[in-house]
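DM from R.C. (forwarded with permission)

"hey, sorry to bug you on a friday — could you get me a structure for this? deadline for the figure draft is monday and I only need the backbone to look sensible"
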Amino acid sequence: MQIDFFHAADQSELRGWFSSQQAVTQWAGPGVAWPLTEEFMRTLLDADKQQPARLLTFATRCEGQLAAVAQLSFDWENHLACLCRVAVNPALRGKGLAGQLLDVMIHTAFNNPAIERLELVVYPHNLAAVRTYEKLGFVREGVRRACVAVGDARWDSAFYGLLRAEFTARSAA
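My reply, with the result:
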């Protein structure tokens, strides 16, 4: 598995992973429309041009095929980073690719001494994602009930956090 930044050449393959507004909402949140627009896709690029970094989009590749994508955003004023928009190629799910990518991203965040907290938001019905985050050491901190409208449904959002001290203790064990 190769981990790199997301590239313009990856856009078409990523678009093919989503077949509905519900699938895009589960990945990117309620503010992103399906089908994915050119404007949105541009927000996934230019990681290497940001100084300091605000939003980095990582990608993994297996045998040349786009395997997983995830973003890491930074709030430098509050010394925190956020994992977001984690997606795995539907043809490659169930192989632990998200966990491997997220482990690298967690280390990337905490390798910067300014970052004291890493957080994320997940829909609790996404059990595979919840299991992955908890396995990586994230602690569930709360739930906003029925906070996202998806068609006629209302989804809860669960909030998870990982503190530098927890990461350090887990890494030492």
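R.C.: lifesaver. The chain has a mean pLDDT of 94.
me: no worries. The chain has one domain: 2-172.
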